[in-house]
Design brief:
Elements: H1 3-13, H2 20-36, H3 41-55, H4 61-65
Amino acid sequence: MDQKRLDWIMSGLNQYTLTKNEDQFVKTTLENFEQKHTLTENQEERLETLYKEKSKLLPNRRDNHFPMRKNLSQKARVRMPRRKVF
């Protein structure tokens, strides 16, 4: 796996909340790649599988983008446009 592919997978995984084990695996894999500039086949397969599993889910970042959506139960007040006064 080359640096470009690893960066692409990591940017995709950053959109999701990882479990402690998944997070530890990703950190260890990145450290190994920085030291050796290569990954084992097992690490590559596990990263690809993790990315595929997470990409089936909705990203967790959406909740952070729209924090006001939690208050949808309140009825919104419709505002009428004001007339221009000359």
